[in-house]
Amino acid sequence: MARNTTPSNVTSLAFAEEASIGVLPVTPVWFMLEPNSYGDFGAEVETVARQPITSDRQMKKGVVVGITSTADFENDLTDDNLPRFMQGFVFADVRTKTELNATAATSVHYVVPANGTDFVAGDLVLASGAANAVNNGLKVVTGSTGTTVVVSGLAAETVAISLVHVGHEFASGDAEIVKGGGTLPTLITTTKDLTDFGFIPGEFVYLGGDVVANTFANGANIGWARVKSAVTNIITFDKTDQEFVTDDGTGKSFRLFFGKVLKNEQAALQVRRTYHVERQLGAPDPASPAQIQAEYVKGAVPNEVTLSFGEASIITLDIAMMGTDYFTRDAATGPIAGTRPALKESDGYSANNDVKRIRMSSVPVGASSPVPLFNFVQELDISINNNVSENRAISYAGSIDMSEGMFEVSGALTVYFATVEAANSVRNNADITLDVAASKLNKGYAFDLPLVTLGEGRNEVEANEPITIELEAMAASGAKYDVNMNHTLCITFFDYLPTVAASRVV
Questions:
Q1: Is the pLDDT of residue 1 over 70?
Q2: Judging by beta carbons within 10 Å of its beta carbon (0-12, 13-18, 19+), is residue 11 exposed, middle or buried?
Q3: How far apart are CA 315 and CA 372, in angstroms?
Q4: 273-289: b or e for each residue (b if 16 or more CB lie within 10 Å)?
Q5: What is the chain's percent helix, strand, coil content, to nearest 5?
Q6: Mean pLDDT, to the nearest integer, of 273-286?
Q7: Residue of 372, 336, 358 whose CA lies nearest to 437
Q8: Neighbours of 466 (CB within 10 A)
Q9: Are the CB atoms for 123 and 168 separated by under 8 Å?
Q10: What's the chain's average pLDDT?
């Protein structure tokens, strides 16, 4: 007997990347999502009624003249979904460090099919996927060959193991910090070639490990920092937690952690992704629970996303995609086939507990840690808008394609008043920069807007309440600050961070 109603809790949401706009690959991969709520999802059918001039003054039956398809929903931010979503919205590929897939482990090394020498002594590798727990986790490479990556403390097994380059432990005393008056700090090595890490200007790193031996002696030289440039034996940092001080690193096997990087790219490296977005609608007949209905928005181009950081809340992604068309599949036909990986269990990020750094200040000039414009934030939204528009054509009810417009990144902040510097920065059209970093369970991310213009800036004064300031931040290319930071947004995804990164708040 068919149901008279369908509860929302029988629905599910997934998406698959298309081979070309509106067309799935032969075997699509469907990634499951966990939406909190939906906005406009499906098709808005546009009709026009006939309105002839007649004595009865009545309209005639209308006809369908167009279909607008959208897929809007809110999802909690997790380590699993953030990189996958953001590639679509930034129109670019994530820049990865070295990643290899081992086929087995012995007691002394991982076995890889090839390219084992991409890992060298001192590299920090995150291993995952092994059945034996001792083969997973953070490992220090002591050597390698084309088919082996040597680390200690392993157990023999034959299984697929992922190896991801997440950092480096420098030989004792090889790394030092140099900071002169009025100059940005540098990390200098005697032996290690720092170009091996593939750093680009604008990505964030984390300095220091969880034990004294892996951290510089001076506590100022610990924490988040942005890479301004990297050459053979010198990395120059800006946007550090504190002003670094000179430290020769004697007796220290200093650790440096880094991650995958995603930024809006120049034209040659831009990549547009389109998707089928699937919402399963449950089985209409409880006696046949495997016969499930589904609806689809196809040719979906990521248009707008807002990351919301609110006090006492989970960080969320409010996602809006525009599609070329919409269709359904009945229970007898069922959802589109394909590979459907199990949803990874991931914790959400708490805006109160897991955000470790929100810093808005003047762009660094000489000082790597300029005085922040405020100390504490009540609310923050970071929004991306690709200004996507539909391309309509005769003989097609939906859209034949989508055109992306200007890549816009903006921020809206409510901050607690401390000094008049925020208002002055708005009035003086100062060059400002904004970044946010978070860490949880030895993972994390950092968002960086290298150059923003501030708007609004009024002090909000209410009886018996703290003074707050409403600020708008419109991001722009950072090329004005540094020609090599010619992007509006740069995101660093850390597959591994030391435990200390989750305990320090700056």
A1: no
A2: middle
A3: 23
A4: bbbbbbbbbbbeeeeee
A5: 10, 45, 45
A6: 94
A7: 358
A8: 11
A9: yes
A10: 94
Q: Which two tokens stand for residue 93?
A: 């590929």
Per the document, the length of the chain is 506
Across the range 246-272, mean pLDDT stands at 96
Tell me which residue of 391, 294, 343 sits closest to 22, measured CA to CA.
391
Residue 463 class from Cβ within 10 Å (0-12 exposed, 13-18 middle, 19+ buried)?
exposed
- Residue 473 CA to residue 432 CA, distance in Å, equals 9
Contact criterion met (CB below 8 Å) for 136 and 206: no
Phi and psi of 341, rounded to 5°?
-60, 145
CA atoms of 457 and 472, how far apart (whole Å): 8
Q: Which of 257-266, 341-350, 403-412 has the lowest mean pLDDT?
A: 341-350
How does strand 377-385 pair with strand 123-128?
unpaired
In 232-293, the DSSP E strands lie at 234-238, 255-257, 260-263, 275-280
Long-range (24+ apart) CB contacts under 8 A made by 155-159 are: 155/105, 155/107, 156/104, 156/105, 156/106, 156/107, 157/104, 157/105, 157/130, 157/131, 157/132, 158/103, 158/104, 159/104, 159/105, 159/129, 159/130, 159/131
Residue 502: DSSP 8-state:
G
Q: Which of 505, 443, 477 is nearest to 83 (CA)?
A: 443
Residue 151 scores a pLDDT above 90: yes
Burial code of 153-164, b = ≥16 C-beta within 10 A, e = fewer? ebeeeeeebbbb
pLDDT the model gives residue 345: 84
Instruction: Identify the burial level of 379 via C-beta atoms within 10 angstroms of its C-beta, where 0-12 means exposed, 13-18 middle and 19 or more buried.
Output: middle
Would you list the domain boundaries of the chain? 10-91+271-494
Q: CA-CA distance, 164 to 183, in Å (whole number)?
A: 34
Strands (E), 250-407: 255-257, 260-263, 275-280, 294-310, 316-323, 325-329, 355-362, 377-385, 389-393, 396-403
Which pair of structure tokens corresponds to residue 20?
A: 């070309």
> How many CB atoms sit inside 10 A of residue 220's CB?
17
Element (H, E) at 137: strand 137-140
